DNA sequence: AACGCGGGGGT
DNA sequence: ACCCCAGCGTT
């Protein structure tokens, strides 16, 4: 039997039930695909349900405030996905009368939709025979065909894409694409795949040569940067605090946070002598206490954030920058914040 | 072509 | 610790 037909056969018997597999509504499929980028099904599923519930149509999403979209996205990470989601919703609602593009090429033009996502939507919604090449597909193909080309190089991306095009099932694009991904997720998984009971184990080059544990080949690991964050949690007359929105292009763009002092070395002197800190407290009576002695270490894929919170008690309003807003304690939890701050707010303000 | 971007789960 | 996850946009 053909490679693709074996996978589809496996898929029809082993696929998990998921809400986005019950529909071909492009709005729902698009939403699920954006949410699932670099995200496990178990983590993304509750977000998918709450987005569908809160924004039943692309018009509802388009008419929302960006802050509300980010708030619903809070905790899912890679927040540019949420901002691009909102941009694309407005584009589809306002420029395309709510009708999504119906082919790979036009889908690719949407913000936040790359090669993978355009292929996924085009194949699932419109039966266009364009192959998806995600992390699962790299693993399945590299093992089955014994391909050692690193997957995160230009040559690797091109080689696997060309192979995927050859293998594409033109009779059932939707089933085939979901089959190879589901197969990679459940059967040909990264560690301890079920080769003994695999329907492809009689012709798998990786298994035959003992390469299962070394495929796919991926070049270098990014090294982790350490950063030292010091948040000033203002308590103004014990009722209000200050939040500011992150600008620029770094992490958490668009999310809110307390006034932040980032230092190179995490010693108390460098924080207290920091120019920004002096400016914030200059001319005001204040009492400052450190929330916890030990920093909270927030681990991201690419950096570790050693974070301290300082409670700054004041009786007068400090001078605010343009980005800063006075917020009632009870309202702090309505702003989209990184999960690191969300946890703190929940604990400290008891909201 | 290389890099930055979250948070969670598995081993 | 380290890897991976239905990747994408920017530089």
UniProtKB/TrEMBL annotation:
Q: Cofactor binding mode, per the note? A: Binds 1 [4Fe-4S] cluster.
Instruction: Please give the superkingdom of this protein's source.
Output: Bacteria
Pfam short name (any one): HhH-GPD
EC number in record: 3.2.2.31
Q: Which InterPro entries match?
A: A/G_AdeGlyc_MutY, DNA_glycosylase, HhH-GPD_domain, HhH_base_excis_C, HhH_motif, MIG/MutY, MutY_C, NUDIX_hydrolase-like_dom_sf
SUPFAM superfamilies in the record, alphabetically?
DNA-glycosylase (SSF48150), Nudix (SSF55811)
User: Which cofactor(s) are needed, names only?
Assistant: [4Fe-4S] cluster
Reaction catalysed by this enzyme: Hydrolyzes free adenine bases from 7,8-dihydro-8-oxoguanine:adenine mismatched double-stranded DNA, leaving an apurinic site
Q: Does the keyword DNA damage apply?
A: yes
Q: SMART domains given for it?
A: ENDO3c (SM00478)
> Enzyme class, one word?
hydrolase
Where does the record place the HhH-GPD domain? 35-186
Q: Which UniProt keywords apply?
A: 4Fe-4S, DNA damage, DNA repair, Glycosidase, Hydrolase, Iron, Iron-sulfur, Metal-binding
Key word RNA-binding present in the record? no
Q: Which GO terms describe its biological process?
A: base-excision repair; mismatch repair
User: What are this entry's molecular-function GO terms?
Assistant: 4 iron, 4 sulfur cluster binding; 8-oxo-7,8-dihydroguanine DNA N-glycosylase activity; adenine/guanine mispair binding; metal ion binding; oxidized purine DNA binding; purine-specific mismatch base pair DNA N-glycosylase activity
Record NCBIfam families: mutY
Name the family.
Belongs to the Nth/MutY family.
| Role of this protein | Adenine glycosylase active on G-A mispairs. MutY also corrects error-prone DNA synthesis past GO lesions which are due to the oxidatively damaged form of guanine: 7,8-dihydro-8-oxoguanine (8-oxo-dGTP).
Name it.
Answer: Adenine DNA glycosylase
């Amino acid at each position: 039997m053909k490679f693709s037909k074996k996978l589809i056969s496996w898929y029809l018997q082993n696929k998990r039930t998921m809400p986005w597999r019950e529909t071909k509504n492009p709005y729902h499929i698009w939403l699920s695909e954006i949410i699932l980028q670099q995200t496990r099904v178990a983590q993304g599923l509750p977000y998918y349900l709450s987005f569908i519930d809160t924004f039943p149509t692309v018009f509802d999403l388009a008419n929302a405030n960006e802050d509300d979209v980010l708030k619903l996205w809070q905790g899912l990470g890679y927040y540019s996905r949420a901002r691009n989601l909102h941009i694309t919703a407005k584009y589809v609602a306002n420029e395309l009368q709510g009708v999504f593009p119906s082919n790979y090429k036009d889908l690719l033009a949407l913000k936040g939709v790359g090669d993978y996502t355009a292929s996924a939507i085009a194949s699932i919604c419109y039966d266009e025979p364009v192959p998806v090449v995600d992390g699962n597909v790299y693993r399945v193909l590299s093992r089955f065909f014994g391909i050692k080309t690193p997957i995160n190089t230009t040559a690797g991306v091109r080689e696997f894409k060309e192979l995927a095009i050859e293998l594409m099932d033109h009779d059932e694009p939707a089933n085939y694409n979901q089959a190879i991904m589901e197969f990679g997720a459940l059967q040909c998984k990264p560690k301890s795949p079920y080769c003994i009971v695999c329907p492809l184990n009689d012709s798998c080059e990786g298994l035959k040569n003992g390469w299962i544990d070394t495929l796919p080949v991926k070049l270098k690991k990014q090294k982790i940067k350490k950063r030292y964050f010091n948040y000033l949690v203002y308590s103004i007359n014990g009722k209000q605090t200050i939040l500011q929105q992150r600008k620029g292009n770094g992490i958490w763009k668009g999310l809110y946070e307390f006034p932040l002092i980032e230092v190179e070395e995490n010693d108390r002197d460098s924080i207290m002598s920091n120019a920004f800190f002096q400016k914030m407290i200059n001319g005001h009576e204040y009492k400052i206490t450190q929330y916890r002695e030990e920093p909270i270490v927030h681990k991201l894929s690419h950096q570790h954030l050693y974070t301290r919170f300082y409670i700054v008690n004041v009786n007068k309003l400090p001078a605010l920058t343009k980005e800063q807003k006075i917020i009632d304690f009870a309202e702090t939890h309505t702003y989209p914040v990184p999960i690191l701050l969300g946890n703190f707010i929940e604990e400290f303000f008891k909201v």
